[in-house]
Design goal:
about 10% strand; 6-stranded mixed β-sheet
Length: about 290
């Protein structure tokens, strides 16, 4: 696919609360221009998750002739392939799109798409800070995460491991709540669960460390000079930022530029491990072969 006019990187947060300094959004247009940060339309300093949700649904400030590839640094689905199911007590074998609604239904009273309600309902499957390991806890991973680890694209943590700074589970659950809404909006396709056609917005799961790796770097980026070096390696103009920079900002900018660099590369849209069943139940990290 090479008809996207804009590329948007979203560094996400699943933290409790209403406004999140960990959410940062960057956009770059087709070509080689440097990515730029997008501030919340509300005028607030930080984004809320629901504000991101409605910003995407409302067209992201783009024109009717624009088409955007949007990468979110968060898991779009729970592990399934390792056991052939999500949970042993399910009477049927649902797909990921069903699970988005199912998760959202369990979190109805949680503010700003927080995922705590689902964790409470299925706490026996999670390793919780202060709550120990649930009786059914396993450090399960999806196929795309296992491949990422094998290829040394970066470490991946199980969504069920809610301990320490590397935890990703609450981030993933809040993203799935958002997808439950966005999936049913006109002109939005969530890849790979839906094969994009001519939708104006295509959402993909990404791993920001992968784009840094494509630019020859490992680890977080916390200064403008390193960020600009990596952007140049991804075919982008430099931002000119000097001095320290939050890694949430650099992750969003590298994602936007990285998406632009690989969007027309067919192997990323059709990875070898993406079987029909994996597509339906687990999805895939865009950029992982």
């Amino acid at each position: 696919m090479n008809d996207f006019t804009h590329f948007i990187g979203i560094d996400w947060s699943g933290a409790r609360g209403r406004r999140h300094p960990g959410i940062r959004i960057a956009v770059c247009a087709a070509g080689a221009g440097a990515p730029r940060l997008v501030m919340p339309p509300s005028g607030m300093k930080n984004w809320s998750r629901t504000e991101v949700q409605h910003w995407i649904a409302d067209g992201m400030g783009l024109t009717d002739s624009d088409r955007a590839l949007v990468g979110i640094d968060s898991a779009f689905a729970l592990p399934h392939a390792d056991k052939g199911l999500y949970f042993p007590d399910f009477a049927n074998d649902p797909d990921a799109i069903f699970m988005w609604d199912y998760i959202d239904d369990h979190c109805g009273t949680d503010d700003d798409l927080y995922g705590g309600g689902f964790v409470d309902a299925y706490r026996e499957h999670f390793h919780l800070s202060g709550g120990g390991k649930g009786v059914h806890y396993e450090r399960r991973l999806r196929v795309t995460e296992q491949i990422s680890i094998t290829r040394k694209d970066g470490p991946c943590e199980s969504v069920y491991h809610l301990i320490g700074p590397s935890q990703v589970g609450l981030s993933a659950l809040s993203t799935m709540r958002m997808l439950a809404f966005l999936h049913f909006q006109d002109d939005i396709a969530v890849w790979p669960f839906v094969e994009p056609e001519d939708e104006r917005c295509v959402l993909v799961e990404i791993y920001a460390a992968r784009f840094a790796g494509l630019a020859g770097h490992r680890g977080k980026v916390r200064d403008g000079e390193t960020l600009d070096t990596l952007l140049a390696a991804l075919g982008s103009h430099k931002t000119g930022i000097t001095g320290g920079i939050a890694d949430h900002v650099s992750d969003a900018m590298l994602t936007a530029a990285g998406l632009r660099a690989i969007a027309a590369t067919q192997k990323y849209w059709h990875p070898d491990g993406l079987s029909d069943r994996v597509r339906e139940t687990e999805g895939w990290i865009f950029g992982i072969e």
